[in-house]
Amino acid sequence: MLEDSIPLDDVTMICGLQACSEVGDLDICKQIHIATISAGGYGKKIVTLVHAYASCASMQDAYSVFDELVQANIISWGACMAGYAGEGNFTVCLKMHEAMLLSGMNPNEVTFSSVLSACSHSGLSIEALEYFDSMVKDYVLMQEPKHYVNMIDLLGRAGDFKKLKSMLDSMPVQANLNMWLSLLGMCLRHGNIELGKWAFDQATTLNPTESVAYILMSNIYAESAFEANILGLFGGTQHITKQY
């Protein structure tokens, strides 16, 4: 339609931008942006455009459009923060979070996920724990599995497995497979056999044929020269390919 110069209505443009977000097509996103301007303005499409540019990892374009918002909503704030966190610009992500709070906008589960990710990759353990606790205490938000994955990454990088185990033991949500695999990855990094075996048992209880769990656990044993444990680990699981 763009190549044939066929006018696009708002619904078509929004659907096109959402598709760009899914596949990361920056060129089409820019073409729709131009068509939007030619059609007389952004209207309801501006938030979708911010999200599309952020999803395409074009944060300069995303922030340029975001800056034109008369009043940014939580979706546009979240899109920009997720985009900056996704491209590794964690400092800007955290600054946007502070700017959002100063604007009077309350954070939500999506913005907290970006903030926790930024803290994790920046080594800001104390700040991350404060943000994590603030979700429930200050904003009455439910801590979801994705937030626990952020905390596993943060505390795992720091090697603070005692605090990490305590957090997981007391979490009010049902852990998912991704959480246990993330914990296994951190146990491999630090050679923590005991906690790794616990995470492995939890992961294989959820999915007995999850090959990644077996690979990570075998690598934990291999790094610690526990060859006998590796043979026992794969006993009776011939459907799993042994990689270590």
Describe this structure in words.
One of its GO terms (biological process) is system development. Keywords: Repeat. This is Pentatricopeptide repeat-containing protein. PPR repeats lie at residues 73-107, 108-142. GO terms for molecular function: RNA binding. The protein is mostly helical and 244 residues long. The protein has a domain at 175-244. It contains 14 helices and no strands. The chain has helices spanning 10-23, 26-38, 45-55, 59-66, 74-86, 90-102, 109-122, 125-137, 145-158, 161-170, 177-190, 193-206, 211-223, 227-233. The longest helix is centred in the first third of the chain and has 14 residues, at 10-23. It starts with 9 loop residues before the first helix and ends in an 11-residue tail after the last helix.
Number of strands: 0
* Secondary structure: helix percent: over 70%
Largest sheet: none
The mean pLDDT is 86
**Intertermini distance:** 51 Å
Element order: H for helix, E for strand: HHHHHHHHHHHHHH
Instruction: Enumerate the spans where pLDDT stays under 50 for 5 or more consecutive residues.
Output: none
SS strand fraction: under 5%
Radius of gyration: 22 Å
Query: Which structural class do you get from the secondary structure elements?
Result: mainly alpha
Shape label:
elongated
User: Number of helix segments?
Assistant: 14
Task: Characterize the quaternary organization of these chains.
Answer: single chain
